[in-house]
Amino acid sequence: MSFKVCIRLLSQAIKHNNLNAQLFNASSKIKTSKCHIPSISFVHQYSTKAKEEANDRKPVYYGVLTPQIKAVKFFSLSSSFVGLAAQPFLYNELSALGNVGIIVAAYSFIGFFTLVTPLMLHFITKKYVTHVEYNIRTGNYIAKTVNFFCVTKELEFKPKDVVVPDVAGMFTTFEAKGKALFMDPRHFDDPTHYEKIMGYDKPIDFKLYDTPSNEKKN
Q1: So where are the chain's domains?
Q2: How far apart are the C-alpha atoms of 63 and 185, rounded to whole Å?
Q3: Exposed, middle or buried, 183 (CB in 10 Å: 0-12/13-18/19+)?
């Protein structure tokens, strides 16, 4: 085999290897793009859906006591966490006194403000509705309240889910899906939403009772 033939075969082999490498890179890019397309489309669909849901919601109510309630609950929780963290230091200081009466009185006082106060505040404010939004597309209402840890919770309900008790409880305007809620009708942007929630837009039934058939015959 001559030297020229060897050179020609070597150049063809190099070209063949380069072609295979290019084909491999192209196929890997196609696979990578295929792998990324579903995730990108999923994120795009999710963001689009979230924007549509946000656009469908219309604020119709705002509780004017919302800032005060959040501030008081945050201060109470912060004080409770500080009080719990300081328990070991307080125990050492009070134990050094050696007076059992002082120790019991001090821990009763600290325990009241550390544990009882946040629970009392939550019991009073858990029914207070901070915001109400109306979903234009579904016709549902979204009521927002604040939980024990001062985090906003949402309750979505329909007007048919609302039950107005004959005797309203403390801080209770109505019940939606079994949860008692308190709203001030004066703070609705549009009073018709309050009327719709409470069922005041429905026709009034003036028929107090039905006469039994036996009484009608007599």
Answers
A1: 64-125, 131-198
A2: 10
A3: buried
* CA dihedral sign of residues 187, 191, 194, 200: positive
Q: What number of other Cβ atoms are within 10 A of residue 194's Cβ? A: 21
> pLDDT tens, 82-121?
888 888 888 787 788 777 888 888 878 887 888 888 999 9
In whole angstroms, give the CA distance from residue 3 to residue 83. Answer: 92
pTM of this prediction?
0.67
Whether residue 6 is predicted with pLDDT greater than 60 in this model: the reply is no
- Are 156 and 142 within 8 A, CB to CB? yes
CA angle 71, 149, 178 (to 5 degrees): 110
Task: Name residue, tokens 């307080």.
Answer: 90
Q: Decide: 162 and 38 in contact? Cβ < 8 Å.
A: no
CA 88 from centre of chain: 35
Instruction: Kindly give the interhelix angle for 100-111 and 87-97, rounded to the nearest 10 degrees.
Output: 160
